[in-house]
Amino acid sequence: MADIRRHFLTGILTVTPVAVTCWITWKVYLLIDGFIRPLLEQIPFLRDNVPSFVNTVAGVIVSAILIVLIGVSAKNLLGAAFFRTFDRLMDKIPVVRGIFHISKQISEVLLSNSNSAFQKVAMFDYPRSGIKALGFVTSDDPDKANINVFLPTTPNPTSGFMLILPRADVQILDMSVEEGIRLIISGGSVVENSYADIIEQAIAGSKQTGESND
Known about the structure:
The chain is built from 8 helices and 5 strands, in the order ααααααβββββαα. The protein is of the alpha+beta class. The protein folds into 2 domains: 1-75, no CATH class; 115-213, SH3 type barrels (Roll), CATH 2.30.30.
């Protein structure tokens, strides 16, 4: 019975990301289909000579182009000022501001290049000796004795603490930043066996180092 339960949970963990991705993709398709296609069908030639599905695909392309243009405008001075004003406006609306900022934080984690902010996955003692925590190295100058490490919270890795740790107290793990983020978001429930072995070996190594120092 325990094996069936374990296999069932494994199946859920395997199917859920695929199902969620398909559901979101389908919802986006329906959104574009319901908004863009009627506009395109106002053009007589497209309405009379082009299949509806082609109009929807054209709508997807147009939407992608608009998103790219929005991204370009957000980089220039005028666009940046507009989006800062929009952010301040969202901050003044109760309930909406919470949803807006959570969505923005999650988008930044999922869509941004994590390697630009997080360099390596690190393990260290926190909040006391003997308890291990995972974080991300944000600044590591070989000429300095300390390393800047970001300690994220679970399940939202965009919030956390900036720690300045002695280099000797930080263990760099042979793990990608993406895998570290996935591990933290899942609260440790989603980790490949190879990475679990890496963590166990790092913990064992730190214990041996501590015993030799004693």
